[in-house]
Records
---
Amino acid sequence: MEEVPEFYADGIEINLIMPWTVALTFSVKGIGPEAQPKKIAIVRMSPEHAKVTTMLLKKQLKGYEMNTGSNINLPQEMYPKLGLSPTEDW
């Protein structure tokens, strides 16, 4: 069986490279107050694949919340920094 590399990421940069490619750049936070995130992997896919991936990830996370009986809570100050609204039906 082929071994597949496994990574942990705590950051992501999303770029839509029109019209054919979405690039997801995963990173980990550097150590120390001045350290920059270290890029660990870039995953490229079509916009269609990215949309289906988003839909499936949303379904999995909602199922997790239903099965555990608890919501995944996020810090309120995160939303405006990301241009998101906490009231959006994610």
---
Amino acid sequence: MRRFTFVAVILVALPLFATEPNPSQRQRELIEKLFAEMNLSDTTTKLMDAVFAQVEKQFLDEAAAKGNEPEDIEEAKELFAAFRAGASKIDFGELLHDAYVHIYAKYFTEQELADLTAFYATPTGHKAIEVMDELMREGMQAGVQHVQPKLEELMTRVIAEQEKKRPWRSTMKDMRTVAVAVEAWATDNEELYPVGDYSALKEQLEPTYLKKFPEKDMWDHAYAYVVSADRRSYRIVSAGSDSIFEWDSRRIVPTKEGQQQQIRYRDRLEEDLIFENGVFLQLPDQAKSQMK
């Protein structure tokens, strides 16, 4: 859905349909004359072309964000081509025409409509219409170049601040991410888990199995990793808010065959978070909603 965010903003920026009484006959006549001078249908088409150019850029930007692989780029182009082909069958000018009539009737009096028509009949008015699509295109490009990075930076900061209020969430996400990479490594290595501590784990997983290795939990403390002597079990541990590991949290205790361990929920964020062999063994009470 992110691809269409910018388009949605542009379309919302267009005047909204007014829930007002129908325009008078005189208003409608003046508006139709104004639209003819503005060549509104053609202007709308050019506006949508400018919007579509931004959509295409977003498709390609997303492909680049994935690593700029040729296959992703080709898929992005194919997806946009299908989208553009479908959009070409829509008459946006006709689709919006009646809405525009009501909008202009809502905001302009008969005299003001006559004044606008007179303006667009002048050479300056004609030029305003001719360069409208370029104004919109360059305006959107300026928005992408200058505004979008600031908005993305702001959103990143807001999300980070929100995550700090619920540090267990990102910590759990990191632990799951590392666990997936550990298990993928084991799949390629005779079903045996990597040996060594957490720092050694990074050397074995990054970048083949994990592009960005989580160094620390949300309490700014390094995770712990332990593996059993037979390399058939592993455990990833966060020390919690006090950054002190519990005496037994880094010990792997063999379980009886068929025995299923239950998650232990703790009421203090100082307690460790423990992930072993694909499941969490210990979490804070606040994380219960994430396990449903």
---
Amino acid sequence: MNSIIELDAANYGRHSIHGEDRVWSETNCYVDVLIELIHALRYDPVAGLAFTLSVDFEVDQWTFFKYQHRDLLEMYGMHIEELNPWVSLAEHVSEQVNNRRPVLVEVDSFFLPDTAGTSYKSDHVKSTIAVNEISIESEHMGYFHGQGYYHVDGSDFRDLFQLDGLVHDRMLPPYIELVKLLKQPEDIDADELLAQSIASLARQLQVLPRTNPFERFKERFEADLEWLMSEPIETFHGYSFATLRQYGACFELVETYLRWLQDRGETGLSDSIDAFKAITDSAKVYQFKLARTIARKKPLDSAPLDQMAELWHKGTEPLTRKYL
């Protein structure tokens, strides 16, 4: 068995970001995977969350936010490179893991047992996993996905890697990244980590949206609403994930990150923390209201988006004043 970190899927202790007390227990597949991988490597994933400040409304969706590769390298010694697939996916993953390199790969959730109740055996959904252990001979893989660490075996393993040769013929290879681990936890100095995190924060504040993203989102949302009410519930779920859930989960990470800075002596952050927490809570409530609106075909007041616009300004303005 090739493995990087010795882990027991049944007793894995997930990071507090994926705790039951969170408003949004999941963020997006890429960030969730890296949070747990960084955590399992015994680093602090919160230190690298400054990237959440620069999210924007991208015309028809909110930014699919991700850890910055520069931050992963500087803070944790995690150097990410794209992997060029030229033999079978299983062989590539096995080779890299055998050389102590976790592999980030897009796979079909239809074959991931941890998605039971959502997409497992019911829906073909692209999702990113981080492979930590694998044995092609034993048809076994240990992987990070979503909120935790899991195993896949047997026929699901074969289908996931398409080892029977039944599915790949008409499909392009997935996007794959390898992670070179250049540091050990004992190499991380707490003061240096804080300084690197604040430097990352300043970089993110330099690329804040030039105009309030909630004002632009409100305009598009009002235009979309009538169309959305005529669509099936599946369309609502996709729309909600790309909009309300995306920024709601993101701004909860902003709140978590700012509290982390505050706990390490940074001052003047309370107003921003309160503002981003309010956005997080409001987004969750508004998502439920939107779901009821779709089900009942009734109008929905967009005034809460004006309030979120004000909160975004109240949250970002003190930060730009302090760190730029």
